[in-house]
Amino acid sequence: MAEQFSLEDALHRFCESWSKAVERRSPIVGGRLFHKTVNCHTGSEAFAVTFKPSGAELRPGADPAAHATFTLSEDDWRGLLSGRYGVWSVQLANRQRPIMEEDGLIRQLGLIMQSFALRKE
Amino acid sequence: MSGATETYARWVHELQYDAIPEGAVHNAKEQMLSILGAVYGGAATEAGAAITSAVREWGDREESSVVAGGYRTSVRSAALVNSVNAQVLEYEDWVGVVHTGATVVPVALAAAEAMGAGGRDLIAAQVAGNEVAARVGLATLGGRGAGNQHAVHQVEVPLVAGKLLGLDPTQLMDAVGGSCTQAQFPVVLGWTSHAKGYLTGMPAYTGIAAAQIARHGFTGNREIVEHAKGYCFEAQGLLRPDQLTVGLGEKWHTQDSLTIKPYPMCGFTMAPTDCLLDLVREHDIQPDDVAEVVVECPITFVITGTMWSAVPDLYDRIANPHESGWSWIPLLFDGHYPLAAAIVDREVTPRQFTRERIADPRIRGLLDRIRLVHDPELDMALVAGRGFGAKVTLRTRDGRVLEKVTREHRGGPGNPIDAADKFRTATRDVLPPERQDTIIRAVRSVERLENARELGDLLRGP
Q: Does residue A73 belong to the interface with chain B, where contact is any CB pair within 8 Å?
C-alpha cells in the first residue's frame, strides 16, 4: 500500500534541509530565494514557506503577500520531492501552468527541491 | 567608440583566412566534418526526409546544394534544410557556451557555393561566425535560455552569409539589424517533434534573407546587438555587455573552446555515457548482469536528464509519431534512455534513436535501474570552467562494484575526438566507405578548394 503523502511533512523536511544547507553555505541554495515567500498548494491545502538567511519557515495556509504560488497535484509533489523529476518536467508535461513573473522563482525552488532529493550524501 | 554591431560588421568584413591561427583553421575543418556527419544522419531520419522533399517542391533558384538531397535550391533554403538536418539528432557542437556548428557550417557552405567562393573564404566566414556567436553567448550567459535554447544565431548568421555575399560593413550592420529585429527564442516544448530542427534552421533562413535584402539598401538598427533594449536584452538578457567584443581577433574561441559531440545527445549526458561505455566494454557487461547504475553528475544533467520524466506515456507517444506528433528527439535529452542503450548496444549513435531500438525491451528494461545522484562538487567544477564531469558506479547482480570517473568527456577542448571517426559513424548507414573517405579528404583540404561548388557537387548526391 502506498505511503500516505503529507505535503506539510514533506515541506517541513525540505525546510530543515534547506536551513542546514544555508548554515553550511552550501552552493545552489539561498541566492534569489532569500526574503521570498512561496505558497505551496495541492489545490486542497496550502502552506507558505518563507526563505530567510537564518533558515526556512513553514506556516499553514497561503500568504496573500507571497511572491509566488506553486500548485502541484499530490502525485507531482511526491515526484518532485523524491527527485524523480523537476518542476520543469511537470511544466513540460502540461500539469503546472506558471505565471511569467513567478516562473523564475518557482523553477529555482523546484531545482533545489529536486537537487536535495538526489544529493550525494 | 563603435558598438558591438559595428565592430562585428567591420571585423567580419575584414577578416581574411591568413589572419586566422592554424589551430582555429584545423578546428573549423573538424567542425565542418562533424556537422556534415550530423547532416547526413539527420537527412536519413523522417524529419530529414520531410524537410528535404518539402523544400524541393518549392522549386527555388538553383544556387546551393542540399546535402544528400540530390538537388540545388536557393542559398537560404539550402541552409534551412541542412541546418534542420544538423539539428534533429542533437549531434553538433558548441564553441564557448553556445551551439554554433548547426548554423555557421550550413550557412557558410550554402553562401560560399552560391557565390562560387573559394575554400579559404568559406573557412574565414565560418570562423567569423563562431567568434561572434561565442562572444554574444558569453555576454548573455545566465539569461533566459541555456544550451541550445540560448538565443544568439540572429547575430552571427547574417554576418557569415553577408561576408560571403559581398556585403560592405554598413550593409552587414543592416543585415544584423534586420535579422535581430524579429528575435526568435526557442520553445523547448517543440523539441518533442521534428520542429526542433527549426531552432537553427529558421535563424539560418531568416538571417540569410536579411543579408540578401540589406544588400539592396534595406536598413536595420545599427546598434541592435549591444543596445539596452536590443536583441541581446530582449532575447536573452544582456548581463555582461563588456564580453561582446573582448579579444576579437586576438583570442580565438574556435581554437580554444570547440567541443564536438561524439554522441547524438544533450551535452550534459556525454560524461556519464563515456564512463558507462568504458565500463561495459572493459568488463564485458551484459544487460542482464546489471543490478544498478548510479550516475553522480552536476545539477545540469539532473534537470535536463529528467525534463521529460513527468510525461507518463512518453514511450507510447514516441512509438506512435503520426498520432502524437512526437519523435525520438526527447530521448536525446533523457538521462536514462541513452545510458540504457549504451549498455545493450555498447554504442550511442543515430542507430540507437531509431524506432526499432527505442522499442527494444532489453533497453526499456534497464531504464529503472539507472539512478541519478547530484554531486555539487561537479557543479563547482563546471562553474570553474573545468568541464563536464561524472562518476558512474555499475553494480552487477553477482556483487561486483565497478566505477569510472571522468573530469572531461570526449570531444571537449582538452579531450578532442577525431571528427573523421564521428563522420564515419554518423554516415555508416548512408554512405559507402569510399564516399566517406572522399568527403573527409575534401573537407580536410577545403582551404585548397578554388570554388565551393565542387564541395556542393560532392555533398549533394544521396
A: no
B413 in any annotated domain = no
Is the Cβ pair B311, A93 closer than 8 Å?
Answer: yes
* Interface confidence (ipTM) of the complex: 0.92
My answer on whether B310 and B401 are in the same domain is yes
Give CA B286 to chain center in angstroms: 32
Domain co-membership, B202 together with B334: no
* B212 half-sphere exposure, CB direction, 13 A CA radius: 15
Q: Which residue has the higher pLDDT, A28 or B112?
A: B112
State chain A's mean pLDDT as an integer: 91
DSSP B236: I
- Cβ–Cβ below 8 Å for A118 and B373: yes
pLDDT of residue A2: 56
- Answer for the pair A88, A114: CB distance below 8 angstroms, yes or no: no
Q: Looking at CA atoms only, how far is residue B18 from chain A in angstroms?
A: 45
For residues B236 and B297, membership in a common domain is answered with: no
Cell of residue B300, nine digits: 545540469
Range B14-24 average pLDDT: 98
Q: What per-residue confidence (pLDDT) applies to B434?
A: 97
pLDDT value of position B339: 98
Domains and CATH numbers, chain A: 7-116 (3.30.1050.10)
CA distance B348 to B264: 7
Domain that holds residue B82: 4-262+418-460
